[in-house]
Structures are given as structure tokens and as C-alpha cells.
Write the C-alpha cells for this entry.
Amino acid sequence: MSIEQTLQARSGGQCELCTSQDNLSVYDVPYSPDTTANSCVLVCGTCHDQLQHPDNIDVNHWRCLSESMWSQEPAVQVVAYRQLSRLSSESWAQDNLDMMYMEDDVRKWAETGQDIEEVKVLDANGVALQKGDDVTVIKDLPVKGSSQVIKQGTVIRGINLTDDPTHVQGKVNGQTLFVIAEFCRRK
């Protein structure tokens, strides 16, 4: 049985977070201890999009977590905990977070993910950069191992973030390069 079939059976064919039955897909919970269905959640298109792009969050959509946070599935609990933590400035979310119960190993999994997600990549002005941002290089930068120089004012479109919070990745003159974030300014 595939992971999706397992999740369909487990969830009764509905989103494990908001109970929608539309556009269901598998969401792999980041920083999972394994790669089985136990580390995945079946989610609708709306939940999936907002989990992938937390900057486009619809706060009212996530009120559904007041029900799903009580799930017996650890992966669902982890996603609920992380979303409630992101929304903790909302009083209802903080109240739910205060009431939420998880086993110690599940809480550790949820918090480990939170610690990693809190690392921000900052540009020269201290502005947090996100995947897909366009940045401008603020000084001439020599490319290591090459005679090439990235000139001041060069725009790097649609950057990617890396595991190292001091670097961003983008294409310059058709070549993918890593650039030190502090020498960039968000456009």
C-alpha cells in the first residue's frame, strides 16, 4: 500500500487538518524521524499551499487546528503545534497551544523543526530574505575560483535559500552562484 493510500485510509479521505475533501495531497512533515506514512499528513490544497508558503497565511483558516490538534497521529500533532506556534500572536492560537498535549518525543520533533525554521537570512539592511526574492548586489564581488566579478548593481532574481543562513543562491549571467547575503539588498 502506498503512502497516499495509507493516509487516505487513516484520514477517511479528508484533510487531516481542516477536514476538506478537495485537492488532497501528501505533505511530508519536515525534520521527520522516518520516511513512512507516520511522518506525513494528508492535506487539502489550501493547507498545503499555506504550509509551503507561510508568508501567505490566512489566519482564520487555521482555526480548524482547535480540533485537529487532538489527533492521535503524531505527524498531525507536529503540524498543528508548528502552525499554532506561528500564529501565537493570535489569542485563540496561544490558548490552543497552552492546552495542547503531546508525548515528549513528539514535542521534541515539533520543537526541533521550530528551532530550524526560525533561522533567518538577512540582507545588508537586516531585512529577512525569502525564497523567490529579487536582490541587488551592493558591491563588486569576486567569484571564488574564477576571474569573474559580480558587479555592484547586478540584480539576482528569484533567489533560493541555502542551509547556510549567510548565503543565498541565484543565477548570475546564466551561472548558478552562491552569494553572501550581507552583500545583497532586497528589491
User: Anything to note?
Assistant: DSSP finds six helices and twelve strands in the chain. The chain has a mean pLDDT of 90.
